[in-house]
Amino acid sequence: MSTVMIVGASRGIGLELAKQYAGLGDDVIACVRDTGAAEQLDALASGAGNVRVEQLDVGDFPSIDAAAARIGGGAIDAIIVCAGVTGGQEQALDNVNIEEWHRTLDVNTIGPTLVARAFKGNLAASGNGHLMLLSSQLAASTWPMGGMLIYSSTKAALSKVGQALAIDWKDDPITITVMHPGWVQTDMGGPHAQITAEESASGIREVVANTTKADSGNFYKWNGEIHPW
Ligand SMILES: NC(=O)c1ccc[n+]([C@@H]2O[C@H](COP(=O)([O-])OP(=O)(O)OC[C@H]3O[C@@H](n4cnc5c(N)ncnc54)[C@H](OP(=O)(O)O)[C@@H]3O)[C@@H](O)[C@H]2O)c1
Known about the structure:
Layout: E1 3-7, H1 12-23, E2 27-32, H2 39-47, E3 51-55, H3 61-71, E4 78-81, H4 98-126, E5 129-134, H5 149-168, E6 174-180, H6 197-210, E7 219-221
Parallel strand pairs: 1-2, 1-4, 2-3, 4-5, 5-6, 6-7
Helix pairs in contact: 1-6, 3-4, 4-5
Residues 8, 10-14, 32-34, 57-59, 82-85, 107, 134, 136, 180-181, 183-184, 186-189, 193 line the site of NADP nicotinamide-adenine-dinucleotide phosphate.
């Protein structure tokens, strides 16, 4: 049995991961931006004794440290940062919304990085901790489309953070991976996406379970294949 923390567990892939880990008997720390608006997670938590809901808004940096203080220094075996936003509709060069770009950088890049800092001790206490950052194929140099300046740049920066932390933490008992979760049927991916949240979460769990320190710094697809940078 492990302790798994999901950041951004109110909807989509994060909610599904919380469901799957809880169903397998793991202890789940489910972090949400707005504890008053996470009905599905609340229903999961009230029916299960192993799901603890915590407030953590990755765009509100003091809330990250506040959550870390409440959660304390106990071991956390895996932290999966799912929280993310697209950055809105105005993402072409001619109409890009600069304010939204800054806000999205906070949520998609800086907040997840501060989560890594705040919970590094918990991951180390596990002796074999795993930090996974959900990025995107749009962040890779191989993505063939332009546009989406806000989303792709903030996710590319997140991927780079993951790669850099894997080097910085090379002597710590923590594996860091970057994940493209697939094109997934969620609010973000839309109903016509290629895979379900169940398939994505199940693949993500497999990657967490089957990677070791030697894999730290890798960029994965949800199906376990290596994603090119
Ligand atoms: N779906 C796809 O096809 C796809 C593809 C590539 C990458 N991804 C990435 O995978 C991750 C999960 O995507 P998804 O499809 O599950 O998205 P989603 O359905 O839109 O859900 C996004 C989740 O992030 C949370 N969140 C947003 N801002 C937050 C903040 N400031 N603090 C804490 N939580 C916050 C949301 O909480 P609220 O309910 O409070 O808003 C929600 O739980 C994202 O990082 C996304 O960029 C998704």
